[in-house]
Every structure is written in structure tokens, then in C-alpha cells.
């Protein structure tokens, strides 16, 4: 997978390479002056983390790469709006989160799934799912959640959005946001229990902590 090709960035050459110790402010300024090398460096600095973010929201890698590419187009087009009062990484992240949500609305019937997900009994007395898994394991289990559960879990548990913020982003009530997060955690806990029960008896919890 070629991340630079995915976002349609120019190939790196000896003539356009920049040092990686550019500050965010210097990097933004260079991008706004039209430096292709600065644009490439900005992409290289943030794309791997943003692709990991997209993969948490979007089930398939091909779709995640497409979301990443469209998100970075918006990053570069809107870079003049970056005020510099917060981190550049946080600003880029918010754009990619919104692009993920737009994709889910178009492709996974997000609003419907938020209101119609299974509401049957789920265990709530299991150890914390997030605390017991390695990142790759958690990513796989999160990807398997229904779109509504997955989206609210990502926004609340991993991105730090509040329930009022999630409600505004998704056009749902705060109560629905809280309910979906609770159900997502419970379902993840059940998945963790199932994963552990399938491991050999010699495989300790320390391996997945």
C-alpha cells in the first residue's frame, strides 16, 4: 500500500525533500506558500495515524484509504483556516473524523443502525474490553461492531467526544449516544470473553493485556 499515491501527493525527490524537524507552524506556512515538498511532509507526518483512525470507523481497508485521500484533500484545501491555537494533529484528526462519518452515512446507513441495533441482554460484569486487548485485537473487534455501536464507541471512548457533541454530530439524542456506547462496551466485553475462551489454557491474560 502506497500512502502517498493514495492521497495523490507528488513523489519525493532530492530537490523537494524537507527536513522532518519542521514545526507545525513552519510546515503550514510552507504549504500555504505552495511548497509541494511541505505538502508531502505534512502528509507523511500524519497519514499513518489518520489511516489507523479511518480503519476504526470503516470496515474495509480500501474504503479507509479512500476516506483518507478525500480527507487530506479537504485538509490541504482548508489549511488556510487553521488558526494555530490548537495542535495541527488535532485539527487534521477532526477533519478525518468528519470524513469518516460522511462515508458511514453514505455507505452504511448509519442513522438507521443507530436506532435499530440489537437491544437484547448483554453482559456488563466482565473486565474492561479495552484494557485486555492489544491494539490490533481491539481494532478487529471494533471493526466487527454494527455501524452505530462502532461509531459512538470510537467518538466517545477513543476520540474523547462528549455525549452532547456526539449527539450533535450524528443527529441523535444524548440518551441514544449513551445507550449505544453502553451496548458497544458490553458487546466488546462479550467478544473479549469469547476470544479468551478460545485460547489455549496455557495462554495467559498477560498476552492480551
TrEMBL record:
Name the UniProt record assigns to this protein: RNA polymerase sigma factor
Domain of life, source organism: Bacteria
Coiled-coil intervals, chain numbering: none
RNA polymerase sigma factor 70 region 4 type domain: residues covered: 137-187
Gene Ontology MF term list: DNA binding; sigma factor activity
InterPro entries for this protein: RNA_pol_sigma-70-like, RNA_pol_sigma-70_dom, RNA_pol_sigma70_r2, RNA_pol_sigma70_r4_t2, RNA_pol_sigma_r2, RNA_pol_sigma_r3/r4-like, WH-like_DNA-bd_sf
Biological process annotations from GO: DNA-templated transcription initiation
Sequence ranges assigned to domain RNA polymerase sigma-70 region in this UniProt record: 42-108
Family designation: Belongs to the sigma-70 factor family. ECF subfamily.
Region forming the signal peptide: none
Keyword terms of this UniProt record: Sigma factor, Transcription, Transcription regulation
